[in-house]
Specification:
Number of strands: 11
Helix content: under 10%
Order of helices and strands: HEEEEEEEEEEE
Oligomer: single chain
Structural class: mainly beta
């Protein structure tokens, strides 16, 4: 009987010292670090993205990618059209999502064409974060946007919407290195 009491007392002390029973510790929240998109640089085509029918992913020595060998382009056709490229990621609770991307514009026009970039996060009304005009320049430029933090898990959708008007001359918007980083 004395051995049984000693064993029960030792088990109770172990429980008090560790703060848990033998079934284990509760799971920790996922870490708020790292790149979470499977294809940020379009090296695998449109994998991980929803792309309109005229979104082309390619690399060209005359118009090289920002990094790597591929980028998404809203190819200038000098026709009235709109094209959409978007992706959705999950943002864990208590994490902030920072989206960085690079854009290059090549154009023959002087008016009317644009690329709108939006970020829609669960619980926050969607809004256009950037409206880039036809005159963005032939050099790659970086843009950054953030979701902010929340106590609950959320989804975030990033969208690139290009619009071109016929008769203005062709405008191509190129997008590359769209990183999705948690912090």
């Amino acid at each position: 009987m004395k051995a049984f009491v000693t064993t029960v007392s030792a088990a109770a002390l172990l429980l008090l010292a560790t703060g848990s029973a033998s079934h284990g510790q509760p799971a920790a929240d996922p870490p708020c670090t790292g790149q979470i998109h499977p294809n940020p640089g379009f090296e695998r085509g449109t994998t991980g993205w929803t792309a309109g029918p005229r979104i082309v992913v390619f690399g060209d020595a005359a118009r090289p990618a920002h990094t790597g060998r591929a980028y998404a382009t809203f190819a200038g056709l000098d026709v009235t059209r709109a094209d959409l490229l978007r992706t959705t990621v999950t943002v864990p609770a208590n994490c902030d999502l920072t989206v960085r991307f690079w854009v290059r514009t090549t154009t023959e026009t002087s008016r009317g064409d644009y690329l709108n970039v939006g970020l829609a996060v669960t619980g926050i009304p969607p809004k256009t974060r950037f409206s880039l005009a036809f005159d963005g320049g032939a050099q790659w430029r970086q843009y950054v946007m953030s979701s902010g933090t929340a106590t609950a898990e959320r989804t975030a959708t990033v969208s690139f919407l290009a619009s071109e008007t016929a008769g203005n001359g062709a405008t191509a918007f190129d997008v590359d290195d769209a990183s999705f980083t948690l912090s």
